[in-house]
Amino acid sequence: MTEDYKIKVQNVTKEYDLFKTQADKLKSFFSVKTDVPHFWSLMGISFEVKPGEALGLIGVNGSGKSTISNIISGIIPQTTGLVDVRGDTSIVAINAGLKKNLTGRENIRLKSLMQGLTNEEIDDLMDEIIAFADIGDFVDQPVKSYSSGMKSRLGFSIAVHINPDILIIDEALSVGDDTFYQKCVDKIADFKKQGKTIIFVSHSLKQIEFLCDRVAWINYGKLRMIGKTDEVVSKYREFIKWFKKLSKKEKAKFEADQKQIQKDFDIDAYQKSVTDEEAKAHPEVKHMAAKIKKRFYGSVISEKMPKTSVLFTWLVTVAILLFCLVNVSGHPVTHIVKHPDSIVKPTKQLKLPTGVEKDNAKKATKKHHKKTHHKKHVKSEEK
Ligand SMILES: Nc1ncnc2c1ncn2[C@@H]1O[C@H](COP(=O)(O)OP(=O)(O)OP(=O)(O)O)[C@@H](O)[C@H]1O
């Protein structure tokens, strides 16, 4: 791999815990051992994208194209691996980025502000973005009332006008009409001329062939092939042809087997295999295991509490509880150490404040007087 890259991903994996309920999710946060099933959406992806290059991502549904695009855009974190992105990214996806309760105009402002543009810059760009998106009067309506084509046009228009270094287009051109598609293609060509980098995710092999310099084929969480567009697309077409010839039962079995591999993936075994491979390729490098460990976990923000933190949390909780009990019991610590059962036998009974006590006493005497007066009254009547 050369150093002349705009995007570099190395040994990137993504694990999802398949929790059944929110309670399971909460339990797993405090527990060291969990029996929640896992699913590895990505099982070790490595590639580079050069400046000015348009890289296509292809693969069947659920293969992990959006997952890797979202990791590169910083929308979701990876579980392991290095992700080095040199520049601002802007992602256009059918279902990402737009807030459905805000109007088109408000979304333009919000997304542009998030990309670091000033209000004046946004004012200057506003009409151009609206014109390119071609959404007419709908610009002042909430985005939830837009068709998928309108959302896609607006998302694309915002993304290209805020001038990012890296443009990621995830299936966004699949819902537009031909005129809009042509406008987008021209814009993408403009981008490439300016030396900007593009990642283009699509099921349309024609679009991929037309727009991309190289293609990566992601297959059930793994990089099956990366290379020149015509070579990779041709191999992918062969695969699709083979798959389509399978019977319904064979197709289901093939898919189930692939998903099972993604459930059984062993991250430690993968880390070891990467370490062994690299040690073989570079025998001169010392401490390879530590280097690979750093590559795997060095830049990763864990979504789970490490086991040591879980144990520490439990220890602190128990210590606070004991401290409270010792305080309430009134016994000195040395006494509690000798007689642990005394922790639940306080030295003093809880007393009510003196004012309350007096009030209660007065009430009790009044009640008593009333009772005895009533008894006397009854007795005299009997007489
Ligand atoms: N939040 C999640 N929890 C559990 N599994 C998830 C989650 N998000 C994605 N996945 C799984 O990860 C795998 C990859 O999904 P992804 O959306 O990246 O695939 P894709 O190649 O973009 O698919 P498509 O072409 O249909 O858009 C799928 O099996 C999906 O079910």
What does this structure look like?
Belongs to the ABC transporter superfamily. The protein is α/β, with parallel strands linked by helices and 383 residues long. It folds into three domains: 214 residues, 3-Layer(aba) Sandwich (Rossmann fold), CATH 3.40.50; 38 residues; 30 residues. The protein is 52% helix and 16% strand. The protein contains 14 helices and nine strands. The radius of gyration is 33 Å and the shape is extended. The termini are far apart. The protein binds adenosine-5'-triphosphate. The site of adenosine-5'-triphosphate has 11 residues, from β2 and α2.
Output mean pLDDT.
Answer: 85
Give helix and strand order, one letter per element, not per position: EHEEHEEHHHEHEHEEHHHHHHH
User: Which outline best applies?
Assistant: extended
By CATH reckoning, the class of the largest domain would read Alpha Beta
Assembly of the depicted chains: single chain
Count of beta strands = 9
Count of domains: 3
Radius of gyration: 33 Å
- Beta-strand residue percentage: 15-25%
Number of alpha- plus pi-helical segments: 14
Main structural class: alpha/beta
Any idea what the CATH superfamily of the largest domain is called?
Answer: P-loop containing nucleotide triphosphate hydrolases
**CATH domain fold name of the largest domain:** Rossmann fold
CATH-defined architecture of the largest domain: 3-Layer(aba) Sandwich
Helix content: 40-55%
Major sheet? 6 strands, mixed
Calculate the terminal CA-CA distance, rounded to whole Å: 115 Å
GO molecular function, one term: ATP hydrolysis activity
Protein name: ABC transporter ATP-binding protein
Pfam families: ABC_tran
Family: Belongs to the ABC transporter superfamily.
